[in-house]
Design brief:
Layout lengths: L22 H31 L16 E7 L6 H18 L2 E6 L13 H12 L5 E5 L3 E3 L6 H4 L3 H7 L26 E5 L4 E9 L2 H10 L2 H4 L7 H11 L1 H4 L2 E3 L2 H4 L1 E2 L14 E3 L10 H5 L1 H13 L1
Parallel strand pairs: 1-2, 1-3, 5-7, 8-9
Antiparallel strand pairs: 3-6, 4-9, 5-6
């Protein structure tokens, strides 16, 4: 059986050539193949189930009632951000959530057992934890700590996730990984069938801001993303490249995913790598500040912090 590797060279695990003198390596390779086969079988069963039941069929589990409508999830990494900055992030999320009757979930690196995987995988586990803690929520919105909600008037369920709105926002027949991925977003996807919404910048898909609709598919997606086989790969950007891999090679995931304009949920403070924030946009994100030092995000975000506080005070 042959399994395709990710099309991005930087995302590929190093090639492995089994040799008779290294039986432990051979066993590891066989384990990976078995794990991949299991994932493929799981995806096939899920697709068959969807095709035979449809959205109007009787659900296998109780549909979430939308209480709360949204859980806003953020991972706080004290090794990458200053204490003052993280307090500001906490304030921003709580004020926005309280305004619309949402809930927040703040996770810290180290809160979950990652079995030796890098701490950035906390992103996926925290989103999964939100579904467990709030089983009646409608949506989970993950927004990383290098970001602020800037427009408190906008609601996730109206500004992004309403089916008619998604019909307008979705970028169809678009290379999933810019600029030239041969895998493209579905051209026939409808807003009512979307369960995952994210953006891409000039270089890659972005895992810094994404929304999942609560349900069986969301759990399948997050479990697949966090699968040991992908955490064992030597991806350059860890969970971000793992995400690119699964959306390109698993039609079960691509068939429920919408890529939308960056400025809807993920505008950058500078336009070098992506679309630049404009007054009135929902979110501003500082994609490079965390890598520049513990104090960098606090310094870089000062003018935006003042702006969102004014916006919240007048709303």
């Amino acid at each position: 059986m042959h399994f395709a590797l990710p099309p991005r060279k930087t995302s590929q695990p190093p090639p492995y050539l089994p040799r008779a003198s290294r039986p432990p390596g051979l066993r590891r390779t066989r384990f990976k193949l078995i794990a991949l086969a299991g994932l493929a079988l799981f995806a096939l069963i899920f697709l068959v189930k969807l095709s035979t039941s449809g959205r109007n069929a009787a659900p296998t589990s109780r549909a979430p009632r939308g209480n709360p409508p949204v859980v806003l999830v953020t991972v706080l990494d004290e090794a990458r951000y200053s204490k003052t900055y993280l307090e500001t992030v906490n304030e921003n999320r709580i004020k926005y959530a309280e305004k619309h009757g949402y809930k927040t979930l703040f996770a810290r690196v180290g809160d979950y057992e990652l079995n030796g995987s890098p701490g950035s995988w906390t992103t996926v586990v925290a989103a999964r934890d939100a579904l467990t803690k709030y089983p009646d929520c409608r949506y989970v919105w993950y927004l990383d700590a290098s970001s602020f909600v800037m427009n408190p008037a906008l609601k996730v369920e109206e500004h992004v996730m309403q089916p008619s709105r998604l019909d307008e926002l979705m970028k169809k027949d678009l290379p999933v990984v810019p600029p030239d991925s041969i895998i493209k977003t579905f051209s026939h996807l409808k807003g009512q069938d979307v369960d995952l919404v994210l953006t891409q910048d000039k270089e890659a898909l972005s895992a810094g801001s994404f929304i999942v609709r609560n349900g069986e598919w969301a759990r399948f997606f997050l479990e697949t993303w966090f699968a040991p086989i992908y955490r064992s790969y030597n991806f350059e950007k860890v969970e971000a490249h793992a995400l690119e891999h699964i959306v390109q090679w698993h039609p079960t995931i691509l068939s429920r995913m919408a890529v939308i304009d960056q400025r809807i949920i993920n505008a950058y403070n500078k336009g070098v790598r992506g679309e630049e924030y404009k007054d009135g946009d929902f979110v501003v994100r500082f994609p490079d500040c965390a890598a520049a030092g513990v104090q960098a995000c606090e310094i870089e975000s000062q003018s935006f912090v003042q702006a969102w506080r004014r916006a919240f005070a007048s709303s």
